[in-house]
Write a structure and sequence with these properties.
6 helices; 90% helix; mainly alpha; Helix Hairpins
Length: 232
Amino acid sequence: MSFFKRVFKIGEASAHSALDKLEDPIKLTEQGIRDLKKDLQESMTSLAEVKAIGIRTRKDADGKKKLASDYERKAMLLLQKAQSGNLDIAEAEKLATQALSKKEEFSQDAVRLATEADKHEKMSNTLQASVNKIKSSISTYENDLSTLKARAKTAASTKKINAQLSKIDSSGTIAMLEKMKAKVDEDESLAEAYGEMANADKSVDDEIEAALGGSSLEASDSLMELKKKMGM
């Protein structure tokens, strides 16, 4: 698991700066999770095989133990038949001895198979612990990957915004605004100066006519009205 520890430590220390430039931590993590899932599949296949062997071996051990019990029961029946006079004692003892020999053979097989079954079950328990650990690791790394992707997206957006902001020259913008303000002030002053010059060019007569223009018009209108009234 040192691979993932290294991946998720990227960027936390300056010692990893070179690694940041050479490796994409998200891609590395995704590949690591794929490898873990492959290991999980293989481990589960092995676990199933070992469990199957253990189950068969345990069944064989129980079968041998049952056969041993059956031969012991048969030996007892043979002796009972001899005791009741239904079977020759010598023949009964011979057959009973053979049955007990079979019973011992199957008993030994049962013990051996039970020992093998214990080993397979112990191995399957170990494999099960490994499978559970891999499953837990996959879940942990998938959660870490989701967090890493979110952080990467946020970092990329922040980087883009900061890059855009860094291109804005605040001092240059202020200087440009000041120049525009000075130009507008200059144009306004110039317009006012031209207005004053235009007023200075008017003659005294022009100013008088301009002042009396309204009164002359009213007098002319009154005269016309009077002439009309007199029939002139």
